Amino acid sequence: MNPLVLLMGSFFALILLKVPIVFVFIISSTLTILSLRMPLLSVLNHVYSSIDSFTLLAVPFFLLLGQLMNHGGITERLVRLSNALIGHIRGGLGHVNVLVSMLFAGLSGSSVADTAGVGAMLIPAMAKLKFPVAFSAAVTACSSTLGGIIPPSIIMVVYASLARLSVGAMFLAGVVPGVLIGLSQMAYTYYMAVRHDFPANQRASVKEIGVSFVSAFPALLLPLIVLGGVTFGIFTATESAAIAVVYGIFLLLFVYRSTSFRAIPGVLSRALIGYSLPLMAVASAGIMGWLIAYLDAPAMILDFLFSITESELGIALLLVAFLLVLGTFLSPIISVVVFLPILQAMGTAAGMEPLHLGIIVVLTLSLGRVTPPYGICMLVAAQIAEIPSHRVFIASIPMIVLTLLIIVTGILVPDLFLFLPRTLMGAFL
């Protein structure tokens, strides 16, 4: 049997059998290596090489930072600030939901942490004000995807590490699309509010705005520490993540005094468990990614694409479609680790420079967080709202379409996403 057919056939067969993804990668890759009569030591070598990266050390620090933010009451402060700033607009809590997600994304870099932290507070609050439950959960899930787009972003760290790109440039490239997606979700929320007469909160006084801003300001410095330090070469992404964790612990223990020393080991253990699962998945996925490149799958994919269209725009749109399909059954990190050689080949054929390709990949894969069957943000939001996940997905479709329009705009006008990194880090690109 053709080794590539064996690799991909066993992969999808095991997926359909609902085998845990880590074992899917190991089993399908091992079967292919045996069919090629290669030494099994290759499996261990590529498991190790997949995670032998200093940059990847930033991931556990950002996961720990997200745990600290959720545990220490930072979410509540962000909600108060957002409510004071925009809660008076028609559909108030819907806008607050989006703005909190944008702010929280700059603190944790984790979409799931955003969904759990923000959703637990705002979905019940929106239900009390008679917002449709499915809409409330959909806004929470869709806005939570900004955790993978607005810096710092865990998926951006992983992509930059594997593709050998500047993490700082990736972070900067995510700023504009992240803001545009957030604004589009607010615009849709306003449209729904006018159409269905959603309520608005009372306008906050200048004093209330000032008090809520002062309360949240120390936490809002976190993304500046990370983004500013990495962008201007003060420290690496890993160092910035570690510094942000130290600063976060200082905030919780001595500034906000919202936690105690006794609680820190528990937070550390949850972050450790939360990191071990994706780390093992990345390690095992690295074997399959290497095999895909070794078996020359990217060249086969390109031949197939050129048989359909030779237009750069056409190939770019097929790339987006391919990423949307991947996102329905694989997490963004796993998709990048396994299919990076194919993505890079498609990006080259579409005339995209590496950084442009990277931000398009991250943006499109972020939608996988809200698409069935494995959209984790959709599932978490549905669980909090206590409704079936398909209702959340249906309510999310307009916001998904808006995000796709922004992605296509970024493909047509690359400078829209790239002018910030080109302006601030041109010498390093």
Protein model, in words:
The chain is mainly α. The protein has one domain (54-428). 78% of the residues lie in helices and 0% in strands. The chain contains 21 helices and no strands. It has helices at residues 3-16, 21-35, 41-51, 58-71, 74-86, 92-108, 111-128, 133-144, 154-163, 167-173, 175-196, 206-231, 237-255, 264-294, 297-308, 312-327, 332-349, 354-366, 376-385, 389-412, 415-425. α6 (92-108) packs antiparallel against α11 (175-196), α12 packs antiparallel against α13 (237-255) and α18 packs antiparallel against α20. It is globular. The chain starts with a helix and ends with a helix. The model has no long low-confidence stretch (mean pLDDT 85).
Question: What are the salient characteristics of this protein?
Answer:
429 residues; mainly alpha; 21 helices; globular
Main sheet record: none
Helix-strand category: mainly alpha
Residue share in helices? over 70%
Q: Tell me the number of structural domains.
A: 1
Spans where pLDDT lies below 50 across 5 or more residues: none
Q: Distance N terminus to C terminus?
A: 43 Å
If you compute it from the alpha carbons, what radius of gyration comes out, rounded to the nearest whole angstrom? 22 Å
Q: What characteristic shape results from the CA principal axes? A: globular
Mean pLDDT: 85
Q: Would you report the number of β strands?
A: 0
**Oligomeric nature of the chains:** single chain
Number of helical elements: 21
Q: How would you spell out the order of helices and strands?
A: HHHHHHHHHHHHHHHHHHHHH
Question: Per DSSP, what share of the residues sits in E-state strands of 2 or more residues?
Answer: under 5%
